Description:
Shape: elongated
Low-confidence stretches: none
Strand content: under 5%
Radius of gyration: 21 Å
Amino acid sequence: MREELHELIDRLPESQVAPILALVRESTPAEDGGEEWPLPDFVGALSSGKGDLGVRSSEILRAELGRDAE
């Protein structure tokens, strides 16, 4: 099966290589034996440190509308 996978990958058009590579990376252990591949440097750059915005939506809306929290 591994040989077939290699052959199929070699036949992929270049435009389809990146999405397949991302999928395979998610499914394989990192080279150092860890559980996951390292995340790119930009991951977390926009993190506010205040948690999930969806969960906090009521709090955010109250603050924007000038209402006190219940």
